[in-house]
């Protein structure tokens, strides 16, 4: 599997999880908790921290650790963020939700930009436009898959329940498993990229060390 294909799959899974999570949390806050649209929007502003972090933090992380490691870290942060929301209750405080919201925003800042680098890094200059278009297609497709998947799981869970608030809460929890599974799959792809990247780097170092005309230590 090429680096570009891994980047496209990773972007699809990451965006699918991100938007699926936002969608189901919005339903949870408005339908189960009774929050207004304005209250929900203000609550989810914390996830927008990526708009500040992308230009300030992401380039420094990529320059220091490389885009593959930063992508891996972004997926791990997303898995932690969505996992923290799984035990959500009927009357949990906003303070209990805040860590998930802020960490998910940080995860987006870490993963999305470096994924675009990975998707176009190994492509010839004249093919950059095509690579960018493919990445955009995969991200849009991933968003649709993520929202559709959480909606389907939620719908099946609600249909199988008794309609009580507790049953609806269980349905939301079931749907929240979907983003966790998606980012864990993406974490596996990112880990594979780390392993293969490190192996190639080691092969390159060994090759240069034994190349003809190169003095040995």
UniProtKB/TrEMBL annotation:
It is a multi-pass membrane protein. It is found in: Cell membrane. Keywords: Cell membrane, Membrane, Transmembrane, Transmembrane helix, Transport. The chain crosses the membrane at residues 7-29, 41-58, 70-88, 94-113, 134-156, 176-196. GO terms for cellular component: plasma membrane. This is Na+/melibiose symporter-like transporter. Residues 1-200 form the Major facilitator superfamily (MFS) profile domain. GO terms for molecular function: transmembrane transporter activity.
């Amino acid at each position: 599997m090429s680096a570009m294909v891994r980047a496209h799959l990773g972007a699809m899974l990451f965006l699918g999880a991100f938007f699926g999570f936002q969608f189901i949390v919005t339903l949870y806050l408005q339908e189960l908790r009774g929050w207004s649209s304005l209250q929900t929007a203000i609550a989810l502003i914390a996830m927008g921290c990526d708009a500040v972090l992308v230009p300030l933090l992401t380039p420094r992380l990529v320059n220091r650790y490389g885009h593959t490691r930063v992508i891996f870290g972004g997926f791990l942060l997303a898995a932690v963020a969505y996992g923290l929301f799984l035990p959500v209750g009927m009357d949990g405080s906003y303070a209990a939700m805040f860590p998930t919201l802020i960490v998910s925003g940080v995860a987006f800042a870490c993963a999305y930009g470096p994924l675009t680098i990975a998707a176009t890094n190994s492509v010839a200059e004249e093919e950059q436009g095509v690579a960018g278009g493919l990445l955009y297609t995969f991200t849009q497709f991933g968003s649709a898959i993520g929202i559709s998947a959480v909606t389907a799981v939620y719908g099946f869970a609600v249909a199988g329940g008794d309609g009580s608030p507790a049953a609806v809460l269980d349905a939301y929890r079931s749907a929240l498993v979907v983003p966790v599974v998606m980012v864990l799959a993406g974490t596996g792809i990112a880990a594979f990229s780390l392993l293969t990247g490190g192996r190639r780097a080691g092969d390159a170092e060994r090759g240069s060390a034994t190349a003809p005309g190169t003095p040995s230590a």
